[in-house]
């Protein structure tokens, strides 16, 4: 985003990057997520007019927060609200000085996103709706983005979100500081949302991810680990996100070409994020419990170590994948295991594992990584015509232009 961007575009981008913080703080007063989102929409509409006429303020996010808060306060103080809704006057009247929204510092706001995540994971909210609600309200994902990532119709996602928001408001969920036991019981949903937001951003970013979303996922993963220091999966999630984010600068060459992990230069990885990921992974072992995210982080680190040294411990990677299949079986994990098996026992064995997986999972026919692996293994076996067919199918399923260009090299 540049300073010359259209004010409407600036307003939308800024609201998405700061969505969770603004929504969480405003909704904390009455638990009405939909009302908080409506208030932010009002602020966006006013921003388009005001910023086009006078230019964006020095502190755009603070401007949006204050205008949204004022819009929500108008609703709270309306005659209808006074007769039907108990107000939290302390929350409503807590204003951090000054009357100009542009002077409000969003960095001074209390961060209540984790409380909102816990509220969205309330046991009375339908389980399928919880991650959708958290991705939308806290992480700023649109219904279209969520639907694409979860292979669901947009209408289904929108309907579930509407019902879940009404349920939250109807429950009168108090945000406050979440009870530690409540938080710990809801951690699996919180983990899935934080990692889901990171994965969606990673997959959809053509060259560089929106700094705000990657930063939010990193921040929230650290926050959960700090609040639950004895929980191994909290540190496992933080380790996985930090190690993944560390590799992002290396997955594109200087001219924008896609660079697979095996061809990346370790000196282009972010050393600070790598070290943080290693520290969190060490805490996983100290906690004595290694779950899905801890195993995935260990797999990630072992791959990175192999690239650094030129010698990958494939048998250890296979053991980790076997453990992951027991703890959290998934289509992606099964395909990755087939790739590792090919390195340990040969491409024929890896291809056989992939064929067996295809027989058990009809979804594999639309899973792009499976076709990329099939093309690779068939090439190693000298079955060039079949490899070309598999690569064409992988290309049909690839949306990233840089990755499409990489896969199409040498294909006629």
From TrEMBL:
Residues 186-282 form the DUF6596 domain. InterPro entries: DUF6596, RNA_pol_sigma-70_dom, RNA_pol_sigma70_r4_t2, RNA_pol_sigma_r2, RNA_pol_sigma_r3/r4-like, WH-like_DNA-bd_sf. Residues 81-107 are annotated as: Disordered. Residues 130-168 form the RNA polymerase sigma factor 70 region 4 type domain. Keywords: Sigma factor, Transcription, Transcription regulation. The keyword Transcription regulation applies. Residues 92-107 have a biased composition (Basic and acidic residues). SUPFAM superfamilies: Sigma2 domain of RNA polymerase sigma factors, Sigma3 and sigma4 domains of RNA polymerase sigma factors. It comes from the Bacteria. Belongs to the sigma-70 factor family. ECF subfamily. This is RNA polymerase sigma factor.
């Amino acid at each position: 985003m540049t300073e010359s961007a259209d004010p409407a575009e600036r307003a939308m981008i800024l609201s998405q990057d700061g969505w969770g913080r603004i929504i969480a703080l405003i909704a904390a007063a009455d638990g009405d997520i939909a009302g908080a989102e409506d208030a932010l929409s009002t602020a966006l509409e006013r921003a388009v007019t005001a910023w086009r006429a006078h230019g964006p303020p020095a502190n755009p996010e603070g401007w949006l927060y204050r205008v949204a808060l004022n819009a929500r306060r108008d609703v709270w103080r309306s005659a209808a609200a006074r007769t039907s809704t108990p107000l939290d006057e302390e929350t409503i009247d807590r204003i951090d000085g000054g009357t100009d929204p542009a002077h409000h510092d969003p960095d001074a706001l209390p961060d209540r996103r984790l409380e909102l995540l816990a509220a969205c994971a309330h046991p009375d909210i339908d389980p399928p709706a919880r991650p959708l609600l958290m991705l939308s309200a806290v992480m700023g994902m649109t219904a279209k983005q969520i639907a694409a990532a979860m292979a669901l119709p947009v209408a289904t996602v929108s309907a579930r979100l509407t019902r879940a928001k009404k349920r939250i408001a109807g429950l009168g969920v108090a945000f406050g500081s979440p009870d530690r036991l409540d938080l710990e019981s809801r951690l699996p949903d919180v983990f899935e949302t934080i990692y889901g937001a990171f994965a969606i951003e990673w997959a959809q970013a053509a060259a560089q991810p929106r700094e705000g979303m990657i930063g939010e996922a990193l921040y929230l993963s650290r926050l959960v680990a700090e609040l639950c220091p004895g929980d191994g999966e909290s540190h496992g999630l933080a380790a996985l996100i930090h190690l993944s984010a560390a590799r992002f600068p290396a997955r594109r060459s200087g001219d924008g070409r896609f660079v697979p992990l095996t061809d990346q230069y370790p000196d282009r990885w972010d050393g600070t994020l790598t070290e943080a990921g290693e520290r969190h992974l060490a805490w996983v072992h100290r906690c004595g419990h290694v779950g899905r995210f801890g195993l995935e982080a260990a797999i990630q680190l072992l791959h990175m170590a192999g690239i650094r040294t030129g010698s990958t411990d494939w048998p250890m990677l296979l053991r980790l994948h076997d453990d992951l299949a027991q703890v959290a079986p998934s289509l992606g994990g099964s395909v990755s295991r087939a790739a590792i098996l090919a390195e340990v026992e040969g491409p024929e064995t890896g291809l056989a594992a992939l064929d067996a997986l295809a027989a058990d999972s009809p979804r594999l026919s639309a899973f792009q990584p499976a076709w990329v692996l099939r093309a690779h293994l068939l090439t190693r076996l000298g079955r060039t015509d079949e490899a070309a067919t598999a690569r064409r199918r992988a290309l049909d399923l690839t949306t990233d232009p840089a990755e499409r260009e990489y896969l199409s090299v040498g294909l006629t």
